[in-house]
Design a protein that fits this description.
DNA-binding; 24% helix; alpha+beta; 10 strands; four-stranded antiparallel sheet; globular
DNA sequence: TCTGACCTGCGA
DNA sequence: TCGCAGGTCAGA
């Protein structure tokens, strides 16, 4: 579900509400699908003060005084401070000042892993540069594309190449850059790579300003949805007119996922 | 590099 | 009842 703009919006909400607070008690429900088998028990967080929350791609890294919690929202994960405990609540952090934050995840595709600060987090280290960082640029993209036979849409969603782009923003960025999603990454020119990086960053920054895209599950920590779904140009718009050329938007399947594009604009 | 699997809910 | 859903990984 959530891609870079959504996860960054969640991060900002957590910082705003909980940075510097100490966990006094912790409740856990079903965790067998969510907690990494190598993780320390989450009860270790009791007594720990939240000192920072970092993000790389779609992962959040919560830094406490002597522990770090790596977390991914999967498709349906939500960190919230208002919804009451329900069937799909898996964790609740209760803080010293009486505030609380819970994690709910109906599909349980999310991920939680708690470790000491010195522990190397392999999932985190394996990620490519964050899609909004300077490290992801035209030169880097072109260099990696040269060695890849993947379709460019599939390439963009490979988190080891660039971290944070998922199904929504891959389709939207390629539409804006006028690049067909099935083009082989290897065939992109340096100029096209520059355009693609620029458009991908632009659409994610625009989405971040609206606090992300909400179709159903994704929620900010305050329970509200994002607002960018009104500004999507092709995603989930099969059969509708292209906002640029008025041609019909098509859907195709790549790697088992839907891709939306305009055959008229994306040559 | 590709496919299927993980899990649940929703809408057709 | 079936197909689909914004993600990721293991295994072929």
């Amino acid at each position: 579900m959530p891609e870079l703009p959504e996860v960054e919006s969640v991060r900002l909400g957590i910082l705003e509400g909980f940075l510097g607070k100490r966990i006094s008690t912790l409740w856990t429900g079903r965790l067998e699908h969510l907690l990494d088998p190598q993780s320390l028990a989450l009860q270790g967080l009791v007594g720990q003060r939240l000192q920072a929350v970092e993000r790389r791609g779609k992962y959040l890294l919560w830094r406490f005084e002597s522990l770090q919690l790596l977390a991914h929202l999967g498709m349906s994960g939500v960190w919230g401070d208002s919804a009451p405990r329900g069937k799909h609540t898996h964790v609740e952090f209760h803080f010293e000042d009486g505030s609380w934050l819970s994690y709910t995840d109906p599909r349980q595709f999310g991920y939680l892993s708690l470790h000491s600060l010195s522990h190397t987090l392999h999932r985190w280290e394996a990620l490519g540069p964050d899609a909004l960082s300077r490290a992801w640029n035209a030169k880097q993209l072109w260099h990696l594309c040269q060695r890849s036979r993947l379709a460019i849409k599939v390439f963009l969603m490979d988190q080891t190449k660039v971290a944070g782009i998922g199904n929504i923003y891959a389709s939207e960025a390629l539409f804006r850059a006028r690049i067909h999603p099935e083009r082989c990454a290897q065939e992109l020119s340096a100029e096209e790579c520059a355009t693609l990086v620029g458009e991908a960053k632009a659409v994610m920054r625009a989405s971040l300003k609206k606090r992300g895209t909400t179709f159903s599950d994704y929620r900010l920590t305050n329970g509200k949805g994002g607002g960018f779904q009104k500004f999507l140009q092709v995603f989930q718009k099969e059969g509708e007119p292209c906002p640029r050329c008025r041609g019909r938007i098509l859907r195709l399947e790549q790697g088992g996922r839907s891709t939306f594009f305009c055959p008229g604009c994306q040559g």
